[in-house]
Amino acid sequence: MPAPYDRKPLIDPNIRRRGIYILPNLFTTAALFAGFFSIVQAMNGNYEQSAVAIFVAMVMDGLDGRVARMTRTQSAFGAEYDSLSDMVSFGVAPALVVYVWALKGMGKLGWIAAFVYCAGAALRLARFNTQLGVADKRYFQGLPSPAAAALIAGLVWVMNDYHIKGFEVQWLAWTITLFAGLTMVSNFRYYSGKDINLRKSVPFVGLLLLVLAFVLISLDPPQVLFGMFVLYGLSGYILWAVTKLQSKKAPPDNGSTPD
User: CB-based contacts of 84: which residues, under 8 Å, 6+ apart?
Assistant: First the structure.
């Protein structure tokens, strides 16, 4: 009979356990918390706070990827955790906020529009994850889910700033919700900004434009942010129209050679 100390351990001590990087996942957790906080505030009727929380989640979501790349702490766990956090912050939270704020009184039309947005965010994130290695990094295919969430949060924030109730603009909210949800799963291209290298020097004019952007946002945050994301949401359609016009003006290539 073998002695107890002769038994082999269940876990091989030579196998090193891979840990979880704290810094980038800390920002992801902050984004997840902001999305959950947005839902709670909407249920309590604090729509301005719920809208601001979605914008806070956007900032945290933008930082976690940058921090991971700068500190070389990318991981498969972080990528999956980021997708789940995005689904809550930019999929479920905006859908519930706009439904409670404006769409609840529209019956089936209201919750169907909210579901279309939520499903569009899920499909958008799933498609993004499957195209990481093949897609052009300069452009997103379809409206990014944070930008779609900013359209809804910006609308709620602006209307609340003007003391306009949700039921008074329910058709506008319904239209923007459907527009955001369907555009997320479209094939329109949107500039991603991932080709911008923060480690390279920029002209002095670039710094002035950055300062001007901060000044404009500080003057009237709800209107400026909402206006910016409305323009960004339309930019995909404008880029598609410009590309179509250029392709029509281009002479056909029939394989003939000039004299």
Answer: 32
Whether the Cβ atoms of residue 116 and residue 186 lie closer than 8 Å to each other? no
pTM here is 0.85
Residue-wise pLDDT tens for the chain (259 aa)?
444 444 444 434 443 345 678 888 999 999 999 999 999 999 999 999 999 999 999 999 988 888 888 888 888 888 899 999 999 999 999 999 999 999 999 999 999 999 999 999 999 999 988 887 666 778 899 999 999 999 999 999 999 999 999 999 999 999 999 999 999 999 999 988 766 666 666 676 767 877 888 888 888 999 999 999 999 999 999 999 998 888 887 666 555 554 4
Residue 144 near residue 181, CB atoms below 8 Å: no
Q: Using CA atoms, how far apart are residues 154 and 151, in angstroms rounded to an integer?
A: 5
All structural domains of the chain: 22-249 (1.20.120.1760)
Q: How far apart are CA 199 and CA 131, in angstroms?
A: 26
**Distance between CA 183 and CA 141 in Å, rounded?**
10
- CA-to-CA distance for 120 and 188, rounded, in angstroms? 14
Cβ–Cβ < 8 Å for 21, 73: yes
